[in-house]
């Protein structure tokens, strides 16, 4: 069976730098807003009080702006900027090479499907993907096990046929627990942060991925 390569979207295929730079000008360092959003989404999932990820991001930004007194930050402007994220360096060539290897490509994202589709279409990446799966369908956010099972079900694949590619350790951890092969794009963290279930492979950029997938198991 063809290898099924499933990508995380935000932070893996698309860079957060445009939003980070906008917020850094107003005094909010790094991607703390994104980490706050993920923490809130995970807490809501654990409490079985699911919120769409866009709502989570808006809530987290509002909280951080109030906590730090960043009165100059326009939340609507930041939310609009999220629609303009740019692909990571090497993303286009990576996807082309994987397609050349006859891999099946998909996206599994905590973002809403309309937003994910719009981002991929605007960047010209949408044509590379067989399927875009949003965790909205199960009203849980990654790394909940049901999100990875959802992707497998939609793709008609077994865990051993799937490779999860993500820059977030928690995403890799969840995918590994679901039985996926995993490739961690280590463009943020510099050490594996979880007990057990280490990534099957670690790369520093997407450009390294086709070789990893192409030679896996050989």
Overview of the structural elements:
Keywords: Hydrolase. It comes from Geotalea daltonii (strain DSM 22248 / JCM 15807 / FRC-32) (Geobacter daltonii). Belongs to the HAD-like hydrolase superfamily. S-2-haloalkanoic acid dehalogenase family. Pfam families: Hydrolase. GO terms for molecular function: hydrolase activity, acting on acid halide bonds, in C-halide compounds. The protein has 218 residues and is α/β, with parallel strands linked by helices. The chain folds into two domains: 4-15 and 85-215, 3-Layer(aba) Sandwich (Rossmann fold); 16-82, DNA polymerase, domain 1 (Orthogonal Bundle). It has nine helices and six strands; from the N terminus they run βαααααβαβαβαββα. It has a six-stranded parallel β-sheet, sandwiched between helices. α2 packs across α3 (53-68). The longest helix is centred in the N-terminal third of the chain and has 16 residues, at 53-68. The chain is globular and about 55 Å long. The model has no long low-confidence stretch (mean pLDDT 95).
Helices and strands in order, then pairings?
Layout lengths: L3 E4 L9 H8 L7 H15 L6 H16 L6 H7 L9 H10 L3 E6 L3 H11 L7 E4 L10 H11 L6 E5 L2 H9 L3 E5 L15 E3 L5 H7 L3
Parallel strand pairs: 1-2, 1-4, 2-3, 4-5, 5-6
Helix pairs in contact: 2-3, 5-9
Structural classification? alpha/beta
Please name the CATH architecture of the largest domain: 3-Layer(aba) Sandwich
Q: How large a portion of the residues is in β-strands, by DSSP E?
A: 5-15%
**Rg value:** 17 Å
Q: What's the rounded overall pLDDT mean? A: 95
**What's the arrangement of strands in the largest beta sheet?**
3-2-1-4-5-6
CATH topology of the largest domain: Rossmann fold
- Total domain modules: 2
**Counting H and I runs of at least 4 residues, what is the number of helices?**
9
Top-tier CATH class of the largest domain = Alpha Beta
């Amino acid at each position: 069976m063809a290898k099924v390569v499933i990508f995380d979207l935000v932070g893996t295929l698309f860079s957060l730098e445009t939003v980070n730079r906008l917020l850094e000008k107003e005094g909010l360092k790094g991607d703390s807003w994104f980490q706050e959003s993920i923490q809130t989404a995970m807490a809501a999932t654990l409490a079985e009080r699911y919120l769409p990820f866009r709502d989570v991001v808006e809530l987290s930004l509002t909280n951080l702006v109030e906590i730090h007194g960043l009165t100059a930050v326009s939340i609507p402007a930041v939310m609009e900027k999220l629609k303009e994220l740019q692909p990571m360096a090497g993303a286009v060539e990576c996807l082309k090479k994987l397609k050349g290897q006859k891999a099946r490509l998909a996206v599994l994202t905590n973002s809403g499907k309309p937003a994910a589709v719009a981002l991929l279409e605007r960047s010209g990446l949408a044509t590379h993907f067989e399927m875009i799966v949003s965790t909205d369908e199960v009203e849980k956010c990654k790394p909940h096990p049901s999100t990875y099972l959802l992707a497998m079900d939609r793709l008609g694949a077994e865990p051993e046929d799937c490779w999860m590619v993500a820059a977030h350790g928690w995403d890799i951890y969840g995918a590994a627990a679901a039985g996926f092969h995993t490739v961690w794009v280590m463009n943020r963290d510099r050490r594996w942060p979880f007990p057990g279930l280490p990534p099957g492979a670690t790369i520093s950029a997407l450009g390294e991925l086709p070789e990893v997938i192409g030679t896996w198991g050989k």
